Amino acid sequence: MGDDAYDEPLFFQVMQYAARADRDVVGMVSGDPDWEPPQALRDGLREYADADSDQFQYPPSEGLRELRAEIAERRNVDPARVVVTNGAGEANYLTMARAMERGSGSEFLLTDPVYPYYPGKATMLGGEATKVPVLESGDPDVAAMREAASPETAAILVNTPNNPTGAVYDRETVEALHDVAAENDALLLVDEVYDHFDFSGDFESALTLDSDRVLVTSGYSKSMAITGFRVGYAVFPEELVPEAKTRHMLVNVATNRPGQVAVLRALRETSPDYYEGTRDMLRERIGSFTDALDAAGAAYTSPRGAFYVLARFEDFPGTLSNVETLIDEAGVAGMPGEAFGDAYADWIRFALVTPRADEAASRLADYFA
Amino acid sequence: MGDDAYDEPLFFQVMQYAARADRDVVGMVSGDPDWEPPQALRDGLREYADADSDQFQYPPSEGLRELRAEIAERRNVDPARVVVTNGAGEANYLTMARAMERGSGSEFLLTDPVYPYYPGKATMLGGEATKVPVLESGDPDVAAMREAASPETAAILVNTPNNPTGAVYDRETVEALHDVAAENDALLLVDEVYDHFDFSGDFESALTLDSDRVLVTSGYSKSMAITGFRVGYAVFPEELVPEAKTRHMLVNVATNRPGQVAVLRALRETSPDYYEGTRDMLRERIGSFTDALDAAGAAYTSPRGAFYVLARFEDFPGTLSNVETLIDEAGVAGMPGEAFGDAYADWIRFALVTPRADEAASRLADYFA
């Protein structure tokens, strides 16, 4: 495996450095929600603990029938197209493997900046990753993507709402990416795990394109604040389902049932208010955090979706070493921009998953004052 | 992917056929325990449902520190060698992938009969599967394995206590297999998921060989009667750990935390009586089931480990079609021997995971009388 496969542990490296620090540090490295999961999720788990022991045995490999039905209804697709996975992480692995198996190229076109697992997975699967810098808005540069695409392209893989830029791709952009994929007999893989964190109102799922080239992944790690439960899913075009199911079965047998049962209950019983409440809380956090960045004289992104802010401080590029300096001297831990590619190497990513985001912001303002 | 990858759904095919049958059927197809999990496991899950929401977030990718420590203590290895996986299924996938990545061959030497996931995984990973018929005792034919091994051999993969033969390999056999692996610069992968189901007293873990060629997998699906929880592990030689961890991270990010927490509690609080009680119950079931097979004039295996009995009825080979006939006409569902390879194609496997094993046995005795 290439170096790319080892990018992600940088997250852990930074978190460990922060944990060892000789002072109080506000952690804004990893995207673990700090808010409460839906009450019904806890209820589901509590009830499950007392279920008959036959409920503790293998669920269907592709996921509990009722859960797939709930997912399919929300996504407006045939339940037969849904595979429940060990988080969106496995879902992305399955869609990328499926793209490789078509025998139509082995290159993945990615954006720069990019979530580092994608190039890591590409390399692990024996493919190559090509990163195309995004526009200043954080949106994909469709013209540059078209330029980079070739018959060697197995898939274009994007993430919207986007980590780390906060962009929410509009429908025209996704359609245009789909066209580029189609022109090169490639697939379009869209990771929509932040689908519940759209502040712009512009998010539209790629599933609405209703194309047999579109594979969509998502999960409940973020929307239900349960990154440790590992329940996600992939929606495949019908003819790509069987081999994806086989790989899922041969790698994992099935996704854990306690998690599936709890998520099913939460899907059924959680009102839209829960998600709206989370968005409101995040909007507020983002607002006061970026206000403080203004005070610090930093450039920054104002996320239209997801919950990350990229900030650029003058003469202070987003290297691992500068991130460590910020931990020691300001007491704030972010993620080096260089972890996401070259395009935002000067930036530092802050995950707004702490009630102390305000405190972090004023520490940054003081430090850079 | 080759045909092998599609063997396992035969399990589901048979179970679905049994479910659709127009009569009462005793199900003995799949290896889902029908007994109670340890009480502490339910306690662990119940307590977890009320834990702080930060306990619902990503565990370390390689598994909870305390869980790895408990596993390492029981297996008498360094915790750094343990990776907690999504069941023994993912553990086997990781060890097989690791064997391929060494660049020392791409062939897996397996036994015939064999658990059908192994050849399926080999094919998925781009390797080949070679099956070597076992001895009449169900033990591996070491001489034939040596004959079949070559520099093309990436690994020898065995399962003890064995599904489906019920053999428990003695230490000399495992040592001899290790020698064959070493002679061909291959690894020895040992799936010990039935380690708690040794009725013979002869089981010894391959980890006692203390060799840097030995990779051992196991899990809690069977020993704690929780096939749906997906908590297993692999123990790697130290120098093979890093890439295995990376693959685990890139495929699954981590193993679900509710399951890890519940298993950890159960490991800590469950007395040996629980496991001894299960073995006693199974010994009794096996005894009365095989007595009835005697009455039916069938040949059968008397398992020294695991919980499967292979039976051969005169002029009634273990084809899918005959298995369906038994469902319709005798009301007993087993697994076609042909699913496990050629060596036991005349046999039918019965999983003793139903309190109605006696009933099934007398139905078989009546049918073949």
Automatic annotation (TrEMBL), chains A, B:
Keywords: Aminotransferase, Pyridoxal phosphate, Transferase. One of its GO terms (molecular function) is pyridoxal phosphate binding. It is an enzyme of class 2 (transferase). It holds the Pfam family Aminotran_1_2. Gene3D superfamilies: Type I PLP-dependent aspartate aminotransferase-like (Major domain). Residues 24-356 form the Aminotransferase class I/classII large domain. Its EC number is 2.6.1.-. Transmembrane segments: none annotated. InterPro entries: Aminotransferase_I/II_large, AspAT/PAT-like, NHTrfase_class1_PyrdxlP-BS, PyrdxlP-dep_Trfase, PyrdxlP-dep_Trfase_major. GO terms for biological process: amino acid metabolic process. SUPFAM superfamilies: PLP-dependent transferases (SSF53383). Its cofactor is pyridoxal 5'-phosphate. It comes from the Archaea. CDD domains: AAT_like. Belongs to the class-I pyridoxal-phosphate-dependent aminotransferase family. Homodimer. This is Aminotransferase.
